Amino acid sequence: FKVSRVETTPFEGQKPGTSGLRKKVKVFIQPHYLQNFVQATFNALGADRVEGATLVVSGDGRYYSKDAIQIITKMAAANGVRRVWIGQNGLLSTPAVSAVVRERVGADGSKATGAFILTASHNPGGPHEDFGIKYNMENGGPAPEGITNKIYENTTTINEYLIAEGLPDVDISTTGVSSFEGPKGKFDVDVFDSTSDYLKLLKSIFDFPAIQKLLSSPKFSFCYDALHGVAGVHAKRIFVEELGANESSLVNCVPKEDFGGGHPDPNLTYAKELVARMGLSKTHSEPNPPEFGAAADGDGDRNMVLGKRFFVTPSDSVAIIAANAVQAIPYFSGGLKGVARSMPTSAALDIVAKHLNLKFFEVPTGWKFFGNLMDAGMCSICGEESFGTGSDHIREKDGIWAVLAWLSILAYKNKDNLGEGNLVSVEDIVRQHWATYGRHYYTRYDYENVNADGAKDLMVHLVKLQSSIDEVNTLIKGIRSDVSNVVHADEFEYKDPVDGSVSKHQGIRYLFEDGSRLVFRLSGTGSEGATIRLYIEQYEKDSSKIGRDSQEALAPLVEVALKLSKMQEYTSRSAPTVIT
Ligand code: VG1
Ligand code: CO
């Protein structure tokens, strides 16, 4: 092939958000749009990280992925990349990409140096929905802000990109290596099995025979919903072929370019089929739900964990995994190096860290901040309230890992009663955890696609209010007299303990005397308008009060949050789009 230089002009708005660049497909398919972003990335990385590189290019299989893979492959070849690695059919979950970058060794002994992940994660897909792209580094984690800022800068001045001319489209449906000759020498495209490397890593972490025993017990039943995302590919291999789960326990596990028209976000609103199967639907009654259910998002890095007629909040989930990891998961048997959560995630993990005397970190929203801690050996387990849980086995959150972690805990707690005796259920484990550590009532209200100016004004209003805590407390007393006092309010700012970098404006916090918290943030993953996230949390230590309905327990704080922020006034919305 030859290298051709194509003239181009900048597009506005190619700024990567919380997790890469996400836009409507109709924006991405404009001539040169994707190409500009990819070239801006190569330029930000610099020749020494691009020439001779081995790049993974794959994603969640959403609409436009196949075209994007061909374009990126040709651009990689033209920019001097030595090898492109592609999961079969272009399918790799985000955690599988991270595992491949860290673990896979090519037939010629090569190791990956980075990855383009093609996904807009939990956003819907299809010709009228979203596409997305992000770059991950050699450690398998998302590019740090230093690089993403550089990428954005480059997109504003770009005037040409390089693409290989005469390089045929690669057949991504069949595994194997194809070699080509370019001006700078050899270029290989290696299409490989999507699950093998990821599976190998997971097998080195968990006790697969113990999980297999649990899954095969007639007392236990299991269900996994991939919402037509890429996790379905891995789920079939791992849960069915390796662990012996029944094929009928997999729901929506065939990936679709448009996720079957659904919203591939694993929560109680969008994972409708799973919610019904687990006996949690308000309109459908299920006589005998499975003991355990879980769902994934489009790119397989998120998880929702459910028990029979029981919802586990993600904030509780990470705390419970951390509390049980050393006993239940072989990888952690030597102890935990530390734990971390994102700022809006509930403080359930903090309490576990205190009890177990573990290092603890609170970082801004988005997985990239955990990676630095893990690279420095300071953190083993971490999580976010947004259905993200993971560990230092990779540098992304990992939906299937979280399911295996829960199955491990269930296997451990039930190791002596799979024969006789009652099964310790998901609900039993959570209630036992609350009884030991107290309960964090938690909910998140999302106002999706609201007017961007209104959203900005609401945030400005909330920051202004913070200048007088007395005034805030007077306002609150006028709204609800049964809510405690605000003792501190600020905009969250994070100084990375490893590289000293500072991230500002990471969410507005109101902290109450009794440990309650209100947090307001603007989403960084949407593709249209603005999305306001309101996080509400209340801590209850009194064991006689830990069994309440969470929306009911939080009602006073919700009322305060909505009135204090003037939510309806600024957004013209009387109710949130989604409550999780
Ligand atoms: C959201 C979540 C955040 C998560 C991010 C990426 O970001 O709140 O916790 O890390 O999505 O997840 P935001 O900025 O919209 O609140 V994923 O599964 O979309 O890669
Ligand atoms: Co995701």
From TrEMBL:
Alpha-D-phosphohexomutase alpha/beta/alpha domain residues: 14-160, 197-306, 315-416
Please provide one cellular component term from the Gene Ontology annotations of this protein. Answer: cytosol
Query: What cofactor is this protein dependent on?
Result: Mg(2+)
Classification via PANTHER family = PHOSPHOGLUCOMUTASE, PHOSPHOHEXOMUTASE FAMILY MEMBER
Q: Which Pfam families match?
A: PGM1_C_vert_fung (PF24947), PGM_PMM_I (PF02878), PGM_PMM_II (PF02879), PGM_PMM_III (PF02880)
Q: Does the keyword Disulfide bond apply?
A: no
What name does this protein carry? phosphoglucomutase (alpha-D-glucose-1,6-bisphosphate-dependent)
The UniProt similarity line reads: Belongs to the phosphohexose mutase family.
Q: What does this protein do?
A: Catalyzes the reversible isomerization of alpha-D-glucose 1-phosphate to alpha-D-glucose 6-phosphate. The mechanism proceeds via the intermediate compound alpha-D-glucose 1,6-bisphosphate. This enzyme participates in both the breakdown and synthesis of glucose.
